[in-house]
Amino acid sequence: MARSLLSTDMREADHSTSDAAASALAADDVQIPPELIQKWQQIVDLIAEIVQVPSSLVMKAEPQHLAVLVASASKGNPYRRGEEAAFDSGVYCEEVMKSRRPLLVPDATADPVWSSNPDLKLGLISYLGYPIAWPSGNLFGTLCVLDVKANSYSELHRRLMTQFLDVIEADLRVLCRYDARLAQEARARLAESERARRVLLGMLEDLNQAQERLQASQVQLQEAVRLRDEFLSIASHELRTPITSLQLMVQSLTRGIVPPSPEMTLRTFRLAERQIGRLTRLIEELLEVSRIQSGHLALELESLDLVLVARDVVQRFEADLARAGATVTLTDAASVVGFWDRSKLERIVTNLLANAMKFGEGKPIEITVEEVPTGTARLVVTDHGIGIPPERLPCIFERFERAVSAREYGGLGLGLYIVRSLVRGLGGRVWAESQVGRGSTFTVELPCSGPSPGRHVEAEAT
Ligand code: ADP
């Protein structure tokens, strides 16, 4: 490399270091391991010894300054590892960095451009430096020698320097490849552990949900068990009562406890008839529920008048109504004809009227049958009895649900469940309105055209 060329380049250069240059210098900052520093130490020591100069250095460009990365351990070297020079301090290396070209200053004292550079103060009047590049092309720093005497550095010395420069750049290439591989492996490991973390989180979420579902179904199960136990105890009581009553009646006749007069016999038979009727209703209820549960709600559809069906049911209740001291007012249209199942329709009216009587406290009961709007039959059963607490209202159509104490009122808690199931089966809907102490109103709406296949209407309680 010709001295004149190096000097011209240097002279044209601006001594102030730009920010862009500084950031480009720092772009490939990979940590230099101690083994490499040791190797480069041997290189600079060797250079200093062969070129016979007091100072041989590897300088490194840091974001804000130049640092001595390796300094030869040669006699008279004023530089130590770790020393720093600001980018605009005007040292020789700074110019190499900026021009990205080698620089030779044989004698700074005789060169006006370099006559005031900081190295002169240390007595270092000649300089030969080469830029060191990262594999990316960005600047790493410099490899340089400085001498206390004027020195043009022979061709041999320059070749030696460029050879060592190649070694250092080769080291950087190996280092970067190794570093990139490590980074890639680290990234892959990170991605893998992130994937594993996500999977784990997903599993944890699933587990939590499953646990919540399990808890919910445990609560449901406990509630179902409680209702079933309550139902069994109520059912056995409900079935035993009329049987005990029947047994007592028959015994009082057969054992002559009551005189076998025709009147007594007739009275006993009437009582027996009532108890048998009660038993029959209970058993029918249970049979109806088992039919609903098994999904065999076989409907025998025919053209029927709901008005006539309601009148029929009310008539059948006459004796019971009389005993309860209640009256029923039936307000009806001339006829409301639809395509329905007679026994199911009777069951719906019967259950609603039986409840109105049971919970009606002997007060008047009103039944309305009408067609509102056209094509929809509406049956409304109103009593003025005990009413239903608002918090119980949404549950009363459920199986075994009862809003009264078993001691005060008999019943299996199945009547309204049956009503809702049959009404739904016929394509209609049923709901209740009630006020505690003022009575309840149950409304059933049925399509006169009968159930349409697949139609399913939720029962409502308001
Ligand atoms: P139950 O055999 O107990 O009468 P239901 O299914 O017919 O069973 O009724 C469920 C519950 O709804 C009853 O236990 C009662 O608490 C309430 N209920 C039903 N009808 C009436 C009504 N007309 N007035 C007040 N409460 C009623």
Tags for this entry?
disordered C terminus; 49% helix; 462 residues; binds adenosine-5'-diphosphate; Heat Shock Protein 90; Beta-Lactamase; alpha+beta; six-stranded antiparallel β-sheet; 14 strands
Q: Which stretches are poorly predicted, pLDDT < 50 over at least 5 residues?
A: 1-27, 455-462
Work out the helix count: 11
CATH superfamily of the largest domain: GAF domain
Kindly state the mean pLDDT as a whole number? 86
Number of DSSP strands? 14
SSE sequence, one letter per element: HHHEEEHEHEEHHEHHEEHEEHEEE
CATH architecture of the largest domain: 2-Layer Sandwich
Largest sheet, if any?
Answer: 6 strands, antiparallel
Strand order of the largest sheet: 3-2-1-6-5-4
Topology:
Blueprint: H1 3-12, H2 19-25, H3 34-51, E1 55-61, E2 65-71, E3 84-86, H4 92-99, E4 103-105, H5 118-121, E5 126-133, E6 139-147, H6 155-254, H7 262-294, E7 301-305, H8 306-316, H9 318-324, E8 328-332, E9 337-341, H10 342-358, E10 365-371, E11 376-382, H11 415-425, E12 429-435, E13 439-447, E14 460-461
Parallel strand pairs: 8-10, 12-14
Antiparallel strand pairs: 1-2, 1-6, 2-3, 4-5, 5-6, 7-9, 10-11, 11-13, 12-13
Helix pairs in contact: 3-6, 6-7, 7-11, 8-10, 10-11
This protein binds adenosine-5'-diphosphate.
The site of adenosine-5'-diphosphate has 21 residues, from helix 10 and helix 11.
